[in-house]
Amino acid sequence: MSIERFVKTLPELQEIAQKLKVLAQKRKNGIIRYQQTVFDSCFIDRGRINLNRCGLITSYNSEDLDERIFSSIHGEELFPFNIPEFEEWRKREEIPFVFTHKGYALPTGTIEEYRPIPNNYEQWDEDFRLFTQEYKNERITRDFGVKQQIIVNSRGGILILSRPLFALYYRQGYSPNMVTRSLGAYVSTNEEIDRLPNLIRYLSDPTPGGRIRNAPTFTDAFAQLHQISHRIVYPDLKSAGMANHLTHDVIMLCGVPVHEIFGHQFEEPILPLQVGQQSLFPVGKNVQNSKIVLSDDPRLRIEGLEALGSFHYDAYGRPTRKKVHIQNSEVKEHLGSEYVDLKNLDTFLGIKQSDSLGNARQGSEGFFPQPRMSCTVLEGQEIEDISWDGKLLMVPSQGYVLDGNFFKLLSNECYKMGANGQPQRVCALEGSRAIYDAMIGMHILPGISYHIGSCSKPCVLEEGNESEITVSIFTNHQLWENLTLRSV
Q: Could you give the C-alpha distances from 317 to 9, 19, 289, 301, in angstroms and in order?
């Protein structure tokens, strides 16, 4: 296995951590981080396997919580012998900041989680090659990687992590009618790799009886998906018999809109807010829907596997826990980190101070940590008697807030249940509505989908850059009432 040559052993990580600890303790209240991810990746199309052995992503950064100075560099691998050179390089990139620190002391003690590396992650590559040889407009990307992190601080705290991961991405066609699916998990044994096909049962599936979800293998599931999705039956809403209605009820078969439209609302602000800016979901607000439970779970497990996007310790070495955003119709908890806009917190969230910690994330680029989502979870009281007949089904790929009160979502993949009880593909659609109204009119349906991806957000310090993190979305199906739709 060529990837193992580039994965640092536990003794190697420990040696680096001890040297960084000495540097950190020169400050009164400082933290130093190094992370690297080694990838063995391949994309497969038209019967060809294109391998990219041992891709490497790295970042090294330092944060002084008292002096309010942050610096980060990336692109080169750190070793004990080149730490002095990295320090000289880093010092040239120092940026001052003015964020308000919450005042909590950094963690102490040593935590080490070093996972073994499975060696059977290539077992489906040949199946994927044969599949794409027959289905020539599909592409499958298989990623295997090992993410390694060192976090040390001036109080003596040391965190060392090494976690292998597996991710699978399926793509059919091109925009605006592209069809995609994704799944993955952190995996530490060959047996966990073997159990990855269990995640097929959480793929978004518009078919009655769940032909995609019940498929025994990845390629069988993709073949079932191709069968219903490769041809557009209705090129516009009018041909689907829905042109005379301005709004439509839509069944969402994945949770991307929940993550993008609602989830981001619960990330606490670090940057000073504009005067009068208010959150749509201040603590204690009644959202007028007691049937839904929305949360962020950084320790989510699915079928016994750790979801991608999960993490047990944040960028400051603090342990993570599940945060419930909405329950019993009331806004409960937000995602927080070391800093907050205390001056405007009362106006924005309706609270005087925040003790929310443990949600700081950086992403692979090593940008300044800020509160970010991990695994968005939507569940609640299910409605069993909703018929799919005649309704629009969506597997949305995008969602965003327009001006703080309204949203748009884009679904490249849409269906209408035909008279024969089979899904018939509709053109790409864009939907919009007021955010409050959408939440009030949301119903939880049976069926759960799992989706992995990356989530980008503007950096709070490095102007003009986007911070990208891995996230998961694990949600019940939902019925959204009265979406305004238009063909894309």
A: 20, 18, 36, 21
Query: For the purposes of burial, counting CB atoms within 10 Å of the CB of 153, is it exposed (0-12), middle (13-18) or buried (19 or more)?
Result: buried
Place of tokens 């990295």: 86
Q: Which pTM does this prediction carry?
A: 0.95
Contact between 137 and 6 under an 8 Å Cβ cutoff? The reply is no
171, two tokens: 């793509």
Residue 213 has, within 13 A of its CA and on its CB side, a CA count of 15
Strands, E, within 313-435: which ranges? Answer: 323-327, 330-331, 360-361, 370-371, 375-380, 392-395, 398-401, 406-411, 413-417, 423-426, 429-434
Q: What tokens does 208 get?
A: 């009655």
User: What amino acid occupies position 292?
Assistant: I
pLDDT digits (tens, 9 = 90+) for 169-185: 999 999 999 999 999 99
**Cα(360)–Cα(308) distance, integer angstroms:** 16
Cα–Cα distance between 219 and 240 in angstroms, integer?
A: 30
> What pLDDT is attached to residue 463?
87
Tell me the CB-side half-sphere exposure of residue 134, using CA atoms within 13 A: 11
Rounded Cα–Cα distance for residues 400 and 63 (Å): 31
Show Cβ contacts of residue 214 under 8 Å, excluding neighbours closer than 6 positions. 201
Task: List all residues 6 or more positions away from 387 whose beta carbon is below 8 Å from its beta carbon.
Answer: none
Query: According to DSSP H, which parts of 360-459 are helical?
Result: 435-440
Torsion over CA: 228, 121, 253, 138 (sign) = negative
The count of other CB atoms within 10 Å of the CB of residue 288 is 11
Rounded to whole angstroms, the Cα distance separating 132 from 351 reads: 54
pLDDT digits (tens, 9 = 90+) for 133-161: 999 999 999 999 999 999 999 999 999 99
CA 286, CA 330: separation in Å to the nearest integer? Answer: 5
**Cβ pair 434, 482 in contact under 8 A:** no
CB 179 within 8 A of CB 49: no
d(CA 80, CA 84): 9
